[in-house]
């Protein structure tokens, strides 16, 4: 454990921790941030701004290490401390709550995550406006959490708002607009709103093909689910056409593939989409389950890069 004699020594250690974080050495970063947090809490107080920055960055480092239980505690302390000292709608308070929500989401605590994201969304709408990118990330993450809770009507409302505002502000082919549409369309599909799901999947597939290319896995997933929405409406011919277009999913990395059908080997070319989509003996509900992807959480999407500098005296880091 390092011993600090002056606040300047603590500040140098804090800067060293930031450097370790940026280099991807999250374990060394969390150790240094912990040391600065301990010194600052004992000398400056539990809710001093600098103490809270140290604790917040312990949380960020632990999050990167996948130590979500520990990270949750640090984000909780930081959110509470910042709310007391800075106010509930201060940007740094809201970042603490946002990262708390992300951590709770990873832990499967969807009820708590929805509360954190709801508070963040409300605060950001007040402080930043409803169309700010950070506000829209909060709304989007709230929708994801609500969907996991089975609150599909509320999730639908928040997805719809995110799509509408992202499309208006950033355009229909912005990558995050397209992610929002994809998640929204999947919810609509699972709600049985096949016509609406078809419309949104079609927009997503066209947009992703234009932006990412026809062979990109995200483009193919959009076509894959568009085929499902079409088949569910009895549009077998068009569904077969899109399922054929999605066939290259058979060659994407294994952690992005759909489940292997019973009785087949994962070394075989099992994704015979035209045959599967036209198999009348498979019920629609079974087909929906059959085609769900596995190996990654497709509802936990990449976050936007907004060019902000890292944190403390120079601002927040959106990509922590």
Automatic annotation (TrEMBL):
This is Tetratricopeptide repeat-domain-containing protein. InterPro entries: NLR-like (IPR053137), TPR-like_helical_dom_sf (IPR011990). Signal peptide: none annotated. It comes from Aspergillus bertholletiae.
């Amino acid at each position: 454990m390092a011993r600090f004699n002056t606040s300047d020594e603590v500040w140098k250690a804090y800067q060293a921790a930031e450097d370790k974080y940026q280099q991807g050495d999250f374990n060394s970063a969390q150790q240094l941030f912990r040391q600065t947090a301990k010194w600052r809490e004992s000398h400056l107080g539990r809710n001093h701004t600098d103490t809270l920055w140290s604790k917040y960055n312990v949380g960020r480092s632990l999050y990167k290490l996948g130590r979500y239980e520990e990270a949750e505690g640090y984000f909780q302390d930081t959110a509470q401390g910042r709310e007391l000292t800075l106010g509930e709608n201060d940007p740094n308070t809201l970042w603490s709550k946002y990262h708390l929500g992300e951590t709770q989401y990873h832990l499967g605590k969807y009820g708590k995550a929805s509360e954190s994201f709801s508070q963040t969304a409300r605060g950001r709408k007040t402080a930043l406006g409803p169309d700010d990118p950070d506000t829209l990330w909060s709304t989007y993450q709230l929708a994801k959490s609500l969907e996991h809770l089975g609150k599909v009507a509320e999730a639908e409302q928040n997805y719809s708002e995110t799509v509408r505002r992202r499309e208006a502000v950033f355009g229909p082919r912005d990558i995050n607009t397209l992610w929002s549409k994809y998640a929204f369309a999947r919810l609509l599909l699972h709600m049985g709103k096949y016509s609406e799901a078809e419309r949104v999947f079609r927009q997503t597939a066209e947009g992703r093909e234009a932006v990412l290319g026809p062979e990109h896995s995200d483009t193919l997933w959009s076509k894959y689910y568009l085929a499902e929405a079409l088949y569910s409406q009895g549009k077998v011919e068009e569904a077969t056409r899109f399922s054929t277009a999605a066939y290259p999913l058979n060659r994407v990395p294994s952690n992005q593939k759909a489940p292997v059908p019973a009785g087949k080997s994962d070394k075989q070319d099992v994704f015979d989409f035209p045959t599967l989509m036209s198999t009348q003996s498979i019920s629609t509900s079974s087909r929906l389950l059959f085609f769900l992807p596995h190996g990654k959480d497709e509802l936990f999407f990449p976050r936007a890069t907004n060019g902000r500098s890292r944190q403390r005296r120079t601002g927040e880091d959106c990509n922590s």
